[in-house]
Amino acid sequence: MSRVKKGVNALKHRRNVLRRVKGYRHGRKSKERLANEAIVHAGTHAFAHRRDKKNDFRRLFQTRIGASAKALRTSYSKLMGDLKKKNILLDRKILSTLAADHPEVFAKIVAASK
């Protein structure tokens, strides 16, 4: 059986790893071992933060709705409770968009919920 040298594959792997860490600081951009470790950690954080992003946006939506509701002399919790009782099925993302971009429509929704 002939001998197989792994030089081509090793260079290909090293090149791909170093391409993925372009823009990183210090040895993590140029040393293969540190670059591999950086890729693993970056992937872990990216996975977790994709989940966190959903919570961050929900918090933003609640803040926007609460601020607009306060301007209309009600509170966030009372507004959401009233909407649920009246069976007005608008989610927080839509309510937030209406509160920020179309305050007159939001005011009508608040009036309809009372």
Automatic annotation (TrEMBL):
<dbReference type="GO" id="GO:0006412">
    <property type="term" value="P:translation"/>
</dbReference>
<dbReference type="GO" id="GO:1990904">
    <property type="term" value="C:ribonucleoprotein complex"/>
</dbReference>
<dbReference type="GO" id="GO:0005840">
    <property type="term" value="C:ribosome"/>
</dbReference>
<keyword id="KW-0699">rRNA-binding</keyword>
<keyword id="KW-0694">RNA-binding</keyword>
<dbReference type="Pfam" id="PF00453">
    <property type="entry name" value="Ribosomal_L20"/>
</dbReference>
<comment type="similarity">
    <text>Belongs to the bacterial ribosomal protein bL20 family.</text>
</comment>
<keyword id="KW-0689">Ribosomal protein</keyword>
<comment type="function">
    <text>Binds directly to 23S ribosomal RNA and is necessary for the in vitro assembly process of the 50S ribosomal subunit. It is not involved in the protein synthesizing functions of that subunit.</text>
</comment>
<keyword id="KW-0687">Ribonucleoprotein</keyword>
<dbReference type="InterPro" id="IPR005813">
    <property type="entry name" value="Ribosomal_bL20"/>
</dbReference>
<dbReference type="GO" id="GO:0003735">
    <property type="term" value="F:structural constituent of ribosome"/>
</dbReference>
<protein>
    <recommendedName>
        <fullName>50S ribosomal protein L20</fullName>
    </recommendedName>
</protein>
<dbReference type="InterPro" id="IPR035566">
    <property type="entry name" value="Ribosomal_protein_bL20_C"/>
</dbReference>
<dbReference type="GO" id="GO:0019843">
    <property type="term" value="F:rRNA binding"/>
</dbReference>
